[in-house]
Structure formats: C-alpha cells, structure tokens
Amino acid sequence: MRYDLVIFDNDGVLVDSEPISNRLLADYLTELGFPTTVEDSYRDFMGAAAHTVHDVIAERYHGARLPDGFDEDFHARVFAAFQEQLTPVPGAAELLKRVRETGVRYCVASSAHHAWIRTALTRTGLSGFFTEEQLFSAQDVGRGKPAPDLFLHAAATMGVAPDRCVVLEDSPLGVAAARAAGMDVYGHTALTPAERLADATGLYRDTAEAAELLGL
C-alpha cells in the first residue's frame, strides 16, 4: 500500500446511517415549519457539520433560528433509531480488518459529534477496530467539511504528512475537504451519484473495490 494513513469518513462509509439521519432531519425540520424533503437533506446537509443546518435555515428563512436544544433533540431521535435500524455498510468490517492487518495506520474523521460516532460504531459492532485516539470529529476543530481542518488535524495527530494520507468519503463536501487538505480521496458512490464526486482521485461502489484502490 502506498499510503501511510487511511482516513475513513463514518456515516455512509462505515455505517449505513445516511438514510436514517437524513429522513429524520427532513421530518424534524418540516415539523418545525421549515419544509424539507429527504432529497433536500441529502443535497444540503450530507457530510456537513451540525452548524450547517442552523446556517442554512437562517439564510433561507430570513434569520430564523432553530429552537434551543435542536441538536440534542435531533441526536436523541437519531440514536433511538440507530438502536433498531442501524447496520454497518456491507463489507466494512472486512475492509477494516484488512487495513489493520497491513499495519498501516487508520482512523475516522467525521463531521458528526463524538457521541454520534461512538454510538454508531458501537451499534454496528465496529467499535473494536478503534481506540478513542483514532476518532476525530468536526467538534475538535470548529470548522467542518468542506474546510480541510478536520483531515489536517487527524493527520497531524496521527503523525502523518497530508500527501501520505488517503480519505474514503461519500459526500461532495468530504471530497472537497480532502482535496483542500492535499490528500488523495476515494469517493463511495452507493448513495451519491458519481458525477457529484467527480473531483475524487477515484470512485468505488463497494468495499471490495475500495480494497483494490487501497492496494489490499
């Protein structure tokens, strides 16, 4: 393998959470008087940090604010759904095992909060592949994707130069962030059309193709 660090996005790359979280987000925003479809949620919020939801609502609705506790309430709804519905992305455990067996360093860098990341990995049985030191959140840096800060922070903490890193992503925001960080990035096209990930170094449809791109 030609990389020294593999950085995994979490939602949509390791855990199949995007359909759950985007459906619940669309429902919650609509309930609050901000009509949103699931397609809107995918387009506007997939891969984005939590503050993006607040920013978009304020911009579109003339400074409107979401209620206090919105993030906590939304997370509670998502976590409850995770307990019954969340599954790993098919082949995710096998891919993580193969990366670990090579001895190459790896980590997660996600726009989601730390509690979200830990809950998702635990529910899907993937938490055993990671220590706390391998989990990075946009909470750690303040600015989420498409800013490069999160990926640069993960690489620096893991002690690897950006040009020796590769990112696995499923959102245009994540691809843009990896590119801005000076990293190669492979785009997962299971939920996102390939043309929206056209700036990626390469594309993959499943974890078997991801393993090939990573040289496993």
Automatic annotation (TrEMBL):
Family annotation (Pfam families): Hydrolase
Cross-referenced Gene3D superfamilies: HAD superfamily/HAD-like (3.40.50.1000), Putative phosphatase, domain 2 (1.10.150.240)
Keywords: Hydrolase, Magnesium, Metal-binding
Top-tier EC class: hydrolase
A GO MF label: hydrolase activity
SUPFAM superfamilies: HAD-like
Obligatory cofactor(s): Mg(2+)
Entry annotated with the keyword Magnesium: yes
EC id: 3.1.3.-
Keyword Hydrolase included in the entry's annotation: yes
Annotated family: Belongs to the HAD-like hydrolase superfamily. CbbY/CbbZ/Gph/YieH family.
PANTHER family according to UniProt: 6-PHOSPHOGLUCONATE PHOSPHATASE
Protein name in UniProt: HAD family hydrolase
